[in-house]
User: Fold this.
Amino acid sequence: MNGALQLASGPSPLWYATRASGTVSLVLLTAAVALGIAAAGKYAPLRLGRFEVSALHRNLSLLSLAFLGLHIVTAITDGYAHLTWPTAFVPFVASYRPIWVGLGAVALDLLLAVALTSAVRGRLGRRRWKAVHWLAYAAWPVALFHAAGTGTDTRLSPQLALYAACLLTVVAAVWWRLVRAGTQADRVRRWATAALLLVPATLVSFLAAGPLQPGWAHRAGGTTQAPATAPATPHPSSTPQQHVQQDEHEGDDAE
Assistant:
């Protein structure tokens, strides 16, 4: 009986799966982007063949898309945020945290454009394909801000450390690419340096003024409706532990 009450008031496995798959997808996307920046083409490490680097980059990208697909399916199936299939692809139409969920849709559309054009790379031509391929680099900061603005784990120290690690990884990759390029990178060094400073500064400012402040769920547009699996009123026999679990499902929406 107690086990049933605990399951009813606690977060569903789908909710945990959504959190985990989104985090894994971000980590894999970060690795793919960093590898593409630092070790692609003529800048590939001498001890690794260009084919090996390309294969690793492609596999990381595909794995990221696979976990992203799982992230979307579990978020829609869970039903807590009332997301639908259109909200996964059409930006800024979701009722739950529309801006931040919308950024996730933007990142998904950009990555799908890269994947689809890669499938027809031979017909598209290298120059056109490469122009579209740059969208993957644009998708990375968009996905990072989506995770920070939507995730109810953003306040946790391990999650903040993960965001910092993703930032440092990409920053290090860009600097490595610029150093290896030498004087050939003079034309892009200025905007690359500006981007390296702008993205971390913007993310830190956003976190400090947004998700790390009380009331973020309300300001972000978080739903105040209780999950379908939770009772409308606390059960008389429920324990404090069960209330904590319900609050965990709701995340910072309970503010």
